[in-house]
Amino acid sequence: MLRPGHAIVLAALGLLTLGVVMVNSAGMSMDPSKTVTLQTVVTSKPVIFMALALIAMFVMSRLNWDRALVSDWTARWIPMLVPITLVALATVYLPHIGKEVNGSRRWLQMPGTSFQAQPSEIAKWAMVLVVAWFVTRRASKMESWKHGFLPGALLIGFIAAFVAKEDLGTGALILATGCVMLIAGGAKIAHFLPAIPVAAAGFAVAVIASPYRVKRLTAFLDPYGDAEKTGFHMIQSLSAVANGNLFGRGLGFGVQKFGYLPEDTTDFVFAIICEELGAAGALLVLFLYAVVIWAGWAIVKRQTSQMAKLVALGVVVTFGLQAIINLLVVTGLAPTKGIALPLISSGGTGWILTSASLGILLALDRADARREAAAQQNELTMCHRSPLGVVGADPQQPTPVISTIAAIPG
After folding, report:
1. Which residues on neighbouring strands pair with residue 117, listed in sequence order?
2. What are phi and psi of 98, to 5 degrees?
3. Residue 386 pairs with which residues in a beta bridge?
4. DSSP helix, strand, coil percent of the chain (3-state; round to 5)
5. CA-CA distance, 178 to 201, in Å (whole number)?
6. Residues 6+ apart with CB under 8 A from 279
7. Integer Cα distance of 62 and 366 in angstroms
8. CA 168 to CA 105: how far, in whole Å?
9. Is 384 helix (H, G, I), strand (E, B) or coil?
10. Integer Cα distance of 336 and 347 in angstroms
């Protein structure tokens, strides 16, 4: 029988495969010496990252996360993720290691190599474990604003603000996921009301402090007001989406990737999918994401421990919200921001850590399967017992019940 975990594996494999194909297609150039062939695709970086992502998913799925998440050892090391995350985020400011891209320092690059990593990806997934640990530890106090909600909100807000300084989209994603997990853990929605003005003020400061973010916001409100500069990116994205029609121009035959659409292999790869594969390709992407979210939610509902339930919820919400935000940006329904399309946009760190997080869902689903199998075995054992005795006993010997009835006088 197909379990939710099986559906996640199939959908993730489909997304990664599509990512490999579309990243290579979007990376095509007019240089005849850099032609895209089957051999170049198979030996490309996306294929290597896909292999590493699948390995990470497999390894994480084989661990007993249902037991690990409730163990004392896990409760001791999860808080250490906070300082580790802060150190990782701070390394982007180190000379010769931190790399600035499009006005933001959000990348690490080892000197003398082409290896790059994005610390915000580490923060995004680490916070799922940290918030789940915090909420579980204070489960009896989560209805209290002072002792439950406030410490959790401050922790989430601090990490989100640190990330948002260089990566506003991921910072907002961490904040949104953390809030959902707090509510799921028992915090009241009314607790968030005093925090809304603070969050709005922080968002305004983050936008105003960075001129390029202001330009992105004005471009979203009126992209044709400055079509050749601030609105260029969004206009080209919408053009790619619109020109795909029903079945697209054909794989590899897109036009926007040839110097028109910036970030065509990363944040805006969905626009290339729409142009080359049309509405059919776009619907396939939406279907695969829907499968992961639906199957993940099914796993969340089956968890018996609060810690496992919250971790699974955090993974599903992070994955789903990230996909939704990217799709809204590409289709012009949200301001441009640097947030990737999960398992499709080019990026080794994102593919590997996202796949590893989905592996936790697979491990929890395996634990559910073991519990269900044990329950069915117990039920089968009980069914093999007759109300009058044990089935299979010597038919010549009366059962205890029959003997008792025979002994009743008259």
Report:
1. 108
2. -70, 140
3. 389
4. 70, 5, 30
5. 19
6. 244, 245, 246, 247
7. 9
8. 12
9. coil
10. 18
Nearest CA to 173 among 165, 182, 164?
A: 164
In whole angstroms, what is the distance from residue 352 CA to residue 51 CA?
A: 9
3-state secondary structure of 106: strand
Those residues whose C-beta lies under 8 Å from the C-beta of residue 157, and which sit 6 or more positions away, are: 175, 195, 198, 199, 202
Q: What is the pLDDT of residues 188-209, one digit of tens each?
A: 988 888 888 888 888 888 888 7
Q: What is the pTM of this model?
A: 0.89
Q: Is 230 helix (H, G, I), strand (E, B) or coil?
A: coil
* Closest-CA residue to 8 (of 363, 291, 301): 291
Q: Work out whether the CA dihedral 395, 399, 405, 407 comes out positive or negative.
A: positive
Q: Map tokens 């035959």 to a residue.
A: 253
Q: Quick one: which of 323, 329, 324 has its CA closest to 217?
A: 329
**Per-residue pLDDT reduced to its tens digit, 97-141:** 777 766 667 777 776 666 778 888 999 999 999 999 999 998 888
Q: Identify whether the C-beta of residue 26 lies closer than 8 Å to the C-beta of residue 269.
A: yes
Apex CA 224: angle with CA 219 and CA 230, to 5°?
Answer: 40
- Residue 32 in tokens: 């005849």
**For residue 105, which of 114, 118, 122 has the smallest C-alpha distance?**
118
Whether residue 375 has pLDDT greater than 70:
yes
Of 294, 67, 139, 104, nearest to 216 (Cα)?
Answer: 104
Give the whole-angstrom CA distance, residue 203 versus residue 237: 25
Q: Given the structure tokens 């402090």, which residue do they identify?
A: 209
